[in-house]
Design brief:
two-stranded antiparallel sheet; 4 strands; two-stranded antiparallel ribbon; mainly alpha; 10 helices; single chain
Length: about 250
């Protein structure tokens, strides 16, 4: 595992275990810990300025989230995602976004729309400045806001184990202008109150994002129908694709 500058934790208003989990997860998502990297508790504890206990607990949580896994005789390592894994995540994302877009169009208040528009504006400013991290954060926040507007708390609970990996998908982007345009269209459909239009735009957005992510991660495109997962026997992990890394920004 590559050495990092020490970043002592323990000051934020969350448990030490969660702080460690978020820090390691961010390193994986940004590619600082590439697929196959070995997670050594002692080294991580030293780098983060904590004991080994919260590191061990954080790694267990990251395993349940799909970021790392245990390899015999190697220990905990950053997980690779196969093309099938990514396709399946997009299948889930498509169903989720269609549902939340419809609900948001039906329930969005003026205050909700103002918050949603702020995320759009932040993404546009970050794209213009070439700030990849802020662009990704704003786009994730845009989708999170739509989910919040949808107002289905049970859905959030069910999706919690997948949340981080779905966030990672939102960051697989290399054309900020295209993404900003699609998000603007989705915002306008939700603001119009036309639930059918919001669903249609959301599905188109996921289809476009699926195509982009597969090209970025694997150098491939979906089938002509942009359908769900390909034959698992033909889907191999791509180089540099962990259980939830990052490239740029949807």
């Amino acid at each position: 595992m590559s050495r990092q500058t020490k970043t002592p934790l323990g000051v934020a208003h969350m448990s030490l275990r969660d702080q460690v989990r978020l820090e390691i997860r961010n390193r994986i998502m940004k590619g600082q810990l590439p697929p196959g990297s070995k997670m050594v508790e002692r080294e991580l504890a030293d780098e983060l300025g904590v004991s080994r206990v919260p590191v061990r607990e954080a790694l267990r949580m990251l395993e349940s989230e799909g970021f790392v896994h245990v390899v015999p005789r190697r220990g905990v390592v950053v997980k690779h995602l196969s093309q099938t894994d990514v396709q399946e995540l997009f299948d889930v994302r498509e169903a989720l976004e269609a549902f939340t877009a419809r609900r948001a169009a039906e329930h969005a208040s003026k205050a909700d729309l103002r918050r949603l528009k702020r995320h759009l504006d932040k993404a546009s400013r970050a794209a213009a400045a070439g700030n990849v991290d802020d662009f990704g954060d704003a786009n994730v926040a845009f989708h999170d806001e739509i989910t919040a507007i949808a107002g289905n708390h049970l859905l959030g609970t069910i999706l919690e184990p997948l949340h981080s990996r779905l966030d990672w998908l939102f960051r697989q982007v290399d054309d900020p202008e295209r993404l900003c345009t699609e998000h603007t269209r989705l915002y306008e459909a939700i603001a119009s109150g036309d639930s059918a239009a919001a669903v249609a735009v959301a599905v188109e957005h996921v289809t476009s994002s699926r195509r982009t992510a597969l090209r970025i991660l694997f150098g491939t495109s979906p089938t002509a129908t942009d359908g769900p997962s390909p034959n698992p026997a033909r889907a191999a992990p791509a180089k540099g694709v962990p259980g939830a890394p990052g490239t740029t920004g949807p």
